[in-house]
Amino acid sequence: MLNENIVSLLIPCYNGEQFVERCLINVLEQEYAQYIELILVNDGSTDKTEEIIFQLQKRLDNELWRFCYIKQENQGVGSAMNAALKEVSGEYLTSLDIDDLMTKDCISKKVSWLKANPSYALVRSNGYFLFPNQEKRLFYAEDYKASEDVFLDILNGRIYNRAGSYMIRTKKFLEKIPSREIYPSRYGQNLQLLLPAAYQNEGGYISSPLMMYYIHSESMTHQEDKSGEKRWNYTYGFQDIYMHVIEEICKENQKSSIYEKMIKATFSRQRMELAIELKDKNLCKRAYKELKDTKLQTEQDRIRMYMFVSPIKGIILRIIRKLGEK
C-alpha cells in the first residue's frame, strides 16, 4: 500500500563529497519537505560522503517524512536504484543526481500538477543546463510544444531524461515493473523509470524550469573522449538498455518490433551525428546503413549523410527536395 501524498525521492551517490551537503540542503529546503521520503544510496563511496551525510542525518530525520540511508559496495547506479526501489512507499516517485539541484517549488509544483490531472501517469518540467562559466540554457525553448506521448518521444530521442525533471505515479511504474528491479546498468536509470510509467499512459509538461543540471568541466565528454570511441560504445549500451526495457514492458504487444526499430533508428542517428563531429566518413556511412536497415530513414537523414561524405551529391539532393516542395 502506497502512502498518499508522499513523494519518494531516490538519490544514488558515489564519491559525492563535493556535492552531497548542497544536495541534501536543497532537499530540506523544498516546500514539500515534510512529505518527502528521501532514499539515499551510498554506492561504495571512498571519500567523505558518508561523514557529511551523518552530519545532516538529524535534520533529515526530523524535517523529512522519512529518511532512508542505504550503504552498499560499489555496483553502479543501476544497482543503487534497485536497492532504493525496494524501499519506495510514496504515491509519487522521482529522482535526483547528487550534483544537481531543484528549485524550492520543484516537488510541490509537480505534485500539484498530478493532483489536478489524475488521468496522467507522469509530469515533466523544463530545466536549465548550467555550464562551468555559469551560462544557463533552457532544456526546451519557451515556445516548446510538449507531446503527451512521452513514451514515443523517449524512443525517438525527442526529450531529455534528466533526473529531477520528472515525477511519476509510483503505481504506474509498479504495474509494469512489479519486481522493482531495473536493468542494473551503470547508466540509463532515468529512462528505466520513465518508460514503464509512460507506456500506454499520458504525460504532462510544466514549462517552468524547476531544476538545474550541472555540466562539469572535468567530466565533459569531449575532453575525456577525444577519439569518440567511448561515446560510440555508449550509444550501443543505451540502445541495449532501451531494448531490454521494451522487452520487459511490451510483452505480447505486436508493436514491440516497431518500437525496437524506432530505438535503432534513434541511436543510428546519434552515431551518424557523432561520426560527423569526428569527421569520420566511414563511421558515418556505417551509421547511415544501420539507420537505413530500420526503414525509418528520412530524406533529411539522407541529405545529412551525403552533405558530409559527398557534399556535391548532398547539394544536388537538397536542390531536388526544394524543387519538389514548390
Structure commentary:
With 326 residues, the protein is of the alpha/beta class. It has two domains: 3-218, Spore Coat Polysaccharide Biosynthesis Protein SpsA, Chain A; 223-325, no CATH class. 47% of the residues lie in helices and 19% in strands. The protein has helices at 20-28, 49-63, 77-85, 106-116, 150-155, 170-176, 189-198, 221-224, 229-249, 256-277, 281-293, 299-309, 311-325, and strands at 3-13, 36-43, 66-72, 90-95, 101-102, 122-130, 136-138, 166-169, 203-214. Strands 1, 2, 3, 4, 5, 6, 7, 8 and 9 form a nine-stranded mixed β-sheet that branches.
State Rg. Answer: 21 Å
According to CATH, what is the topology of the largest domain? Spore Coat Polysaccharide Biosynthesis Protein SpsA, Chain A
Number of E-state strands: 9
- Tell me the number of helical segments per DSSP (H or I, 4 or more residues long): 13
Q: Indicate the proportion of strand residues.
A: 15-25%
Topology pattern, helix = H, strand = E: EHEHEHEEHEEHEHHEHHHHHH
CATH class of the largest domain: Alpha Beta
Structurally, the number of domains stands at 2
Largest sheet: 9 strands, mixed
Key terms for this structure?
globular, nine-stranded mixed sheet, 47% helix, 326 residues, Spore Coat Polysaccharide Biosynthesis Protein SpsA, Chain A, alpha/beta
In short:
This protein has 326 residues and is an alpha/beta fold. The chain has helices at 20-28, 49-63, 77-85, 106-116, 150-155, 170-176, 189-198, 221-224, 229-249, 256-277, 281-293, 299-309, 311-325; strands at 3-13, 36-43, 66-72, 90-95, 101-102, 122-130, 136-138, 166-169, 203-214. It is built from 13 helices and nine strands.
